[in-house]
Amino acid sequence: MTMHEARSWTVSAEHAVTYRLREVEGVFDRGNDSVARAAALGAGRTLCVIDATVDRIIRDEVRDYFAAYGASMELLVLDRGEDRKNLDAVVEVLTAMDRVDPPRRARPVVAIGGGVLLDIVGLACSLYRRGTPYVRIPTSLLAIVDAAVGVKTAVNFGGHKSRIGTYYPALVSLIDPALLATLPPRHIRNGMAEIVKIAVVRNRALFELIEANAERCGTSAVFTTDTGRAVIAAAIDTMVRELEPNLWEAELERAADFGHSFSPGIEMSVLPELLHGEAVAIDIALSVVVSSARGRLMPRDRDRVLSVLHRLGLPLCLDTLTVDLLADALAATTSHRDGLQRLPLPTAIGACEFVNDVTHGEITAALASLRAGHETTTRVAQ
Ligand SMILES: NC(=O)c1ccc[n+]([C@@H]2O[C@H](COP(=O)([O-])OP(=O)(O)OC[C@H]3O[C@@H](n4cnc5c(N)ncnc54)[C@H](O)[C@@H]3O)[C@@H](O)[C@H]2O)c1
Predict the structure, then answer these.
(1) What is the mean pLDDT of residues 256-283?
(2) Where are the extended beta strands (E) located within 209-259?
(3) 51 CB less than 6 Å from ligand 1?
(4) What is the CA radius of gyration of the chain?
(5) What pLDDT score was predicted for residue 26?
(6) Can you give the pLDDT at residue 1?
(7) Which residues is 166 bridged to in the sheet?
(8) Catalytic residue at 152?
(9) pLDDT of residue 381
(10) 113 forms bridges with which residues in the sheet?
(11) Confidence of residue 54 (pLDDT cuts 50, 70, 90)
(12) Whole-structure pTM value
């Protein structure tokens, strides 16, 4: 106690969480009661928030499912892309929650959609009554392997990617890879970028599985096969193991941030030209080139990563990228990481180190190298 303090109190509490990710077949088959149990469907109204495109595809299935379990459903169809992932979207969900007035703990909100929708609904649920439970049903590959795995919610703010957010786990994420059948190929590739991300820094066997099947992994058909299911399972498993010990991100050196150092600035500056995973792919490409130029990653491993990205149909560079944009992006990330770059750079396939001293000159050289070596991949295939 200092001279100026009469009294002081210290409060200390643990915040332990338990949540589940469950793979289920036929998530909206009437005979499958996974959603009904997770969301406590029954008497009383349940708010179901669904992505507009997904609603057009499975509207009848979802309605029939809720009806089969005797649930009265208030449906909010959310039509929001990355460029409108903002606080207005959160207010839209909060307003629907207020209309439905769910009990404080007993009737979870059901969120059905990709990463954009899950991030918005998760943030709204974390705010409403300081926390209302929700169930996630991810429908894009990126959401299945990433956005629905951790505890982060967010919207963009002030031109900054995911600047406003909370750490708020869903009760459960119900994963049905069959939902990917209708996902456009560009969004399959987009999700593969996040899988490559975690494989390159943490799971060599997963990387090699993708490497052996790269062209197939860029199509939705692969997820009806054992290979595709194995890729999803290994990606989720690796993410869970990586996130769990540092769920609240007290430690700012995070391997899961690989591919997310330059990419937030790239994504926000060219929005909506690039998808999230496409910006991540460019960041991965830059990072392996920088690491190899430092002599920390063998050229052969650098080329394997670049080749897998290319074969998946992901961009390695963009015509409009400039060194200044990349340097500004890294500076913004450095500020987000409390003043140090804490940049994850691969040292082999499946391993990484964190560095704090990447220079403007290294970024310039890496960009020039990607431009020179991969001119054919600077445009994003639709
Ligand atoms: N919270 C986290 O930890 C976390 C992690 C990674 C990414 N994210 C966020 O996720 C977002 C990207 O997610 P996304 O790529 O899923 O984008 P998204 O939610 O915009 O979905 C991509 C597109 O696919 C459509 N779609 C979704 N499922 C479909 C289906 N089954 N069939 C047909 N179309 C379908 C959507 O309508 C949309 O047009 C970014 O905003 C990113 O910041 C969050």
Answers:
(1) 96
(2) none
(3) yes
(4) 21
(5) 97
(6) 57
(7) 153
(8) yes
(9) 47
(10) 138
(11) very high
(12) 0.96
**Bond before 272 cis per omega within 30 degrees:** yes
Cα(232)–Cα(243) distance, integer angstroms: 16
Looking at residue 7, its amino acid is: R
Give the burial string for 172-188 (b: 16+ CB within 10 Å, else e): bbbbbbebbeebeebbb
Instruction: Tell me if 267 CB under 6 Å of ligand 1.
Output: no
Among 168, 174, 203, which residue's Cα sits nearest to residue 112? 174
Left if phi > 0, otherwise alpha if psi is -120 to 50, otherwise beta: which for 166?
beta
Query: From the CA of 116, how far away is ligand 1's center (Å)?
Result: 5
Tokens standing for 21?
A: 């990710």
Instruction: Please provide residue 62's backbone torsions phi and psi, each rounded to the nearest 5 degrees.
Output: -65, -45
Pairwise CA distance, residues 291 & 296, whole Å: 5
Would the pLDDT of 129 be above 50? yes
How far, in Å, is the centroid of ligand 1 from the Cα of 162?
14
Q: Is 280 in the pocket of ligand 1 (CB under 6 A)?
A: no
The one catalytic residue among 85, 152, 161, 197? 152
Answer for the pair 135, 36: CB distance below 8 angstroms, yes or no: no
- Measured in angstroms, how far is the CA atom of residue 342 from the centroid of ligand 1? 27
DSSP letter at 246 equals G
Burial class (CB in 10 A: 0-12, 13-18, 19+), 211: middle
What mean pLDDT value characterizes the chain? 95
SS3 label, residue 325: helix
Atom number of ligand 1 nearest to Cα 141: 16
Count other Cβ atoms within 10 Å, centred on residue 339: 10
Task: Name the pLDDT band for 5 (thresholds 50, 70, 90).
Answer: confident
Query: Could you read off the pLDDT of 298-357 as tens digits, one per residue?
Result: 999 999 999 999 999 999 999 999 999 999 999 999 999 999 999 999 999 999 999 999
Kindly state the tokens that stand for 160: 């900054």
Q: Is the C-beta atom of 271 inside 6 A of ligand 1? A: no
Residue 104 pLDDT: 87
Angle at 33 between CA 31 and CA 37, to 5 degrees: 165
182 lines ligand 1 (CB under 6 A): yes
How far apart are the CA of 358 and the centre of ligand 1, in A? 31
